[in-house]
């Protein structure tokens, strides 16, 4: 494995994980604040209440992706399970990237949010694949 690609790729996996942890906080912990649900395009308190269970659930998907990224990073740091860590990190990044693509197709107005959600995992994914395929 190429060490430089692995290290830089791991940094982007970490950034992606932290971003998804932040999204979890917004959707599952802080959703009741109007300043939060308005970020997601929700216009009224009534709509925010209707969407609250969905946002809560969706937030947990994000925290699980963040935890997967964290576990992958821990495994990448251990020579005994480095390959498994790379596989887990690639899977998590691919999941994050595909979720951002689904977000754009479901609502093109959310392209900016999807780009924010998908850029770090895309870069991490590319770098990890390069790390695996180069010596």
Produce a short descriptive summary.
By secondary structure, this protein is mainly α.
Notes on the protein architecture:
With 135 residues, this protein is mostly helical. The chain has helices at residues 3-29, 34-39, 45-76, 82-106, 111-133. Helix 1 runs antiparallel to helix 5, helix 3 (45-76) packs antiparallel against helix 4 and helix 4 (82-106) runs antiparallel to helix 5 (111-133). The longest helix has 32 residues, at 45-76. The model has no long low-confidence stretch (mean pLDDT 95).
Which properties best describe this structure?
mainly alpha, 5 helices, 84% helix
Apparent shape: elongated
Structural class call reads mainly alpha
Strand content: under 5%
Largest sheet: none
Number of helices: 5
Unreliable parts: none
H/E series: HHHHH
Averaged pLDDT, please? 95
Q: What is the end-to-end distance?
A: 5 Å
Rg calc: 16 Å
Walk me through the topology.
Blueprint: H1 3-29, H2 34-39, H3 45-76, H4 82-106, H5 111-133
Helix pairs in contact: 1-3, 1-5, 3-4, 4-5
């Amino acid at each position: 494995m190429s060490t430089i690609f692995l290290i830089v790729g791991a940094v982007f996996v970490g950034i992606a994980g932290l971003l998804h942890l932040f999204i979890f906080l917004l959707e599952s912990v802080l959703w009741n604040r109007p300043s939060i649900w308005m970020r997601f395009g929700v216009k009224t308190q009534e709509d925010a209440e209707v969407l609250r269970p969905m946002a809560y659930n969706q937030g947990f998907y994000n925290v699980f992706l963040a935890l997967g990224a964290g576990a992958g990073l821990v495994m990448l740091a251990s020579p005994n399970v480095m390959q498994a860590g790379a596989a887990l990190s690639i899977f998590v990044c691919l999941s994050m990237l595909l979720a951002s693509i689904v977000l754009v197709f479901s609502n093109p107005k959310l392209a900016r949010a999807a780009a924010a959600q998908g850029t770090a995992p895309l870069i991490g994914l590319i770098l990890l694949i390069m790390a695996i395929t180069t010596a």
